[in-house]
Amino acid sequence: MASPDPLDAQTVLTADSTPGLSHVSSSDKESDSTSSNEINVRPADCAFGWIPTLAVMVNYMFIFGASNSYGVFSTYYLNDKFAGTPASTLSWIGTLITTFMLGGNMLTGALADKKGYRLTAYIGTVLCTAAYILASFCTEVWQLILTQGILFGMGASFLFAPSVSIPPQWFDKYRGLASGVAVAGSSFGGLWFTAATQAMIDNLGAGWALRILGILTFAVTGIMNLLYFRRVPAKPRKNLLELRAAKRLTFWLVSLESFAMYTGYWAVTFYIGTTAQQLGGTQQDGSNLLLVLNAGSAVGRILAGYIADKFGSINTLLISLILTVVIEMPLWMKANSLAPLYVLCALYGMISPTFISLNPVIVSNYFDTDVLASVMGMVNVFSGIGGLAGNLSQGEIFDKYDKREQFTNTIIFSAMFILFAALIVLFLRTHVIRKSADKRIFQKI
């Protein structure tokens, strides 16, 4: 049997310790501050933990489905509805979804820990639904920026904050697999969101596509929120934010890696459809490429979690980031037909998003489970900033340097930030090895 990851609960304090931030025993009781009657003694890795984990997976379909399938709207806005509008302007819509979803996590994560998972999630459900409905009546870009961008991003942040901390707190031995299964929901969501959105835009128009997505979001996430059970009860706390995390090097390394990855990650999702049209494809070809991207991502996120449980989360993350750069640059830059784009989407989808699965695992191995939503919220602020900076920069590069005719400079920008993220993870690995050696713990990472 493989030895435990030195970032696991048993060895957290030896790697990078601050009193009061260690793991809570698996014998803690389950509760949610929204309901004092839900108290059961359940250990980590029990079968019951898959119920809230699967609920998170379904909600991830709607939280990330919007951003993962935004390429359909992006292609429609860029080439049809707002054909004369600069790509850098239109990129604000999709960018702000991710920016507010992740950047708002500093507040929503703290609220989830302090006020309860379900209350926080239901606020998100209402805001996301309102965003879709209001966006369906918009006729100007700035209106879509406020509704489909900012308002939906805020709602997604309220849903995402409790979701990201549920699988890690229910599992120790299978933490990577559980996180991978949950996060795979975002890929499944992108898969059917992409197909459904394209079909609705073609047959019903963009307005009704947005309204139907709003109705589905309200109904499905409203039901799934009922299954958001905590295993570890929240501790009484005076401060809303878990600022002690900022005293630790590990926090800053994971945060910087998240910033770099989100800066470069979304280029393929946002612009692969336009690339297909530049090579003689249709809008449907762009939609099909996103389907392949999300299908590969669904498989890759689960597989990454399984591999991380066997060989270590940091090792798995480092290899995946290096492979992402190796795949993205030649396949996208040298593509002269649709065939290389399909290969790119399959491989990029399978390998690149492992950081989304593994970052929560790494963070959960270092910090208390009862403050996990707060700490992940702080990390995700950097993710949101990276998404904002990266997507706006890519739009500007596409307009000014690629002349809206090809994506060479955009691809280089994206790949270099992903490579930078790999270097940060390599430094994190070195840091963990050194700390483990200081404590005479010689285990895989």
Morphology call: globular
Give the averaged pLDDT, no decimals.
Answer: 81
Helix-strand makeup class: mainly alpha
> Order of helices and strands, N to C?
HEEHHHHHHHHHHHHHHHHH
Which spans have pLDDT < 50 for at least 5 consecutive residues?
1-39
CATH superfamily: MFS general substrate transporter like domains
Main sheet characteristics: 2 strands, antiparallel
Keywords: Membrane, Transmembrane, Transmembrane helix
Biased composition (Polar residues): 11-20
GO molecular function, one term: transmembrane transporter activity
Main location: membrane
Layout of strands and helices, then pairs:
Layout: H1 12-15, E1 29-32, E2 35-41, H2 50-63, H3 65-68, H4 70-81, H5 87-103, H6 105-115, H7 117-135, H8 141-170, H9 175-203, H10 206-224, H11 249-265, H12 267-278, H13 283-311, H14 313-333, H15 338-351, H16 354-364, H17 372-400, H18 408-438
Antiparallel strand pairs: 1-2
Helix pairs in contact: 2-8, 2-9, 2-10, 4-5, 4-12, 4-13, 5-8, 5-17, 6-7, 6-8, 6-17, 7-8, 7-10, 8-9, 8-17, 9-10, 9-13, 9-16, 11-16, 11-17, 11-18, 12-13, 13-14, 13-15, 13-16, 14-15, 14-16, 14-18, 17-18
